[in-house]
Fold this protein.
Amino acid sequence: MKSPAWLLLLCALLLAGFDAHAQIDPLPSWNDGPAKQAILEFVKVTTDQANPKFVPPEARIAAFDQDGTTWVEQPMYAQVVFALHQVGMVAEKDPRLKDVEPFRTVLSGDRAAIAKLTMPDLEKILAVTHTGMTVDAFKQIVQDWIARAKHPHFQRPYTELVYQPMLEVMKLLRANGYRTYFVTGGGQDFVRVYAEQVYGIPPEQVVGSASATQFGYDKSGKAVLTKVPKLLLMDDNVGKPEGIHLVIGRRPVAAFGNSIGDKQMLEYTQAGDGARLMMLVHHDDATREFAYGPTSRVGTFPDALMAQAKKQSWVVISMKNDWKRIFAFE
Amino acid sequence: MKSPAWLLLLCALLLAGFDAHAQIDPLPSWNDGPAKQAILEFVKVTTDQANPKFVPPEARIAAFDQDGTTWVEQPMYAQVVFALHQVGMVAEKDPRLKDVEPFRTVLSGDRAAIAKLTMPDLEKILAVTHTGMTVDAFKQIVQDWIARAKHPHFQRPYTELVYQPMLEVMKLLRANGYRTYFVTGGGQDFVRVYAEQVYGIPPEQVVGSASATQFGYDKSGKAVLTKVPKLLLMDDNVGKPEGIHLVIGRRPVAAFGNSIGDKQMLEYTQAGDGARLMMLVHHDDATREFAYGPTSRVGTFPDALMAQAKKQSWVVISMKNDWKRIFAFE
């Protein structure tokens, strides 16, 4: 016999009674202001059955960019740092790489030369560092790296350089029935390794740039998937809504980004009916993090994007003014 | 203040006390036998924390093929029937199609000729019936068709031709913390239209063959995704584990199929550590459904697959012997 309705109801009432006393601020790292208010208001109206903006639980999908939106992306994406580091690991096993460009440049450690690497160079680097191994082996490689790597400026693990205010938004949304997804230009298999532990986002809720895998058998006859250098999804710009459709199959009702690469994801989110929340993190805090914008190499935030945000009622989050605290370790 | 731990515990105990009385058979459409026992035993050991085969909730992923595993696939996949029907709809708007092969053959209604269409023919048919429209428009087209279409033999909507025993397995798994996924050779966007209503499987848990979409704007400037004839994922055979990795990013612990196209999915599922359940539906009931096997055009089940099932301890479900009832309407 399943639990009777009256018992479920009793428990619901008991629990609701306690939760009604909840007066603790769910966003303690946010200063009061339009950004914080927009989030609280959105959660309130979309979860209130009596409100015309109510969103049924199954449609509560929130999409988050990662680099620059939920963790530090300057001076270089963590995954690029990883790739450059892995060139050294690969070259130890295959010394011939040391004489071949762009690997020779990477191994030289010459920062100015490395900064000038082109996109085709980067593709070659990604091919040798991100493909050729099983998906399980790749996971292990990333785990080993991320446990040891430190950010050059903060001298802390990348996994500590997550924005506490955004963690609070994710938790608040999840506590209200939202499923939080990453929709990142970063590698899907890379982000999946730590997203659950660091952000509470499970592997199946990570949409990212993805190379193909190839099914086969290892020497013992066991079925394995090997990562191969064939791009399936470049999850940036137009690729973000396309990736959302491929993996999620629903339009998000909330989307969070920080750069021109998130524009189409925000447009796609906004194009749905009913309540919508589109937010952009603006890096304007040179003291506590970094200040960058229109012409930055990563996280580019052109004036046209700011103008579009104003025109389309996207909420711009000022890290300087809206965030009381940026990192948990502060 | 959130509900205190003691109150949550009290409620959990109260509810557990009632559920402990549950003696109702969760699989009433199954005859007693090794197949039913394998399912019940799997659920029991993987959800018992004291059992060495316990599977933590986040890893409880079960993958189901659709055609022939959870609904009727003979004499023709529902989606192929849909595609042939749509050729007529498209030809009404674009009469030039009537003079071009393979559309002329489809429109002739000549069953023998239609049965001889080749794979390149089918690709042309899929291109005009499955691409060129927005994803929202395609959803509407499928909804309209599936609400009216009837199976030629059963004279019932396809959505009634689902296997009641498999619905019971899905429900049992979900009640025990499993997330049920479709991993189907069928079109992802096609299956997503009805999977939630018919099977309780939401869009984000449908892995299927997928064509690309293209981001753009409609005449009013609204962001839209248009389906384009570029195959991203052929989710059959080796494509099943590859699709699982792309969309789910975790290895399933249970997998259900019915044909040679499911072989690699079952192998990939089995290659993980700990408890595993691999099952194959065998169509051996010519009276109540269809009996087919080694040389069938759809749902091919070669002798080698049967031999592999025996060798690797995959459980073969005999529709004739294991299923007390096949359809809910019986």
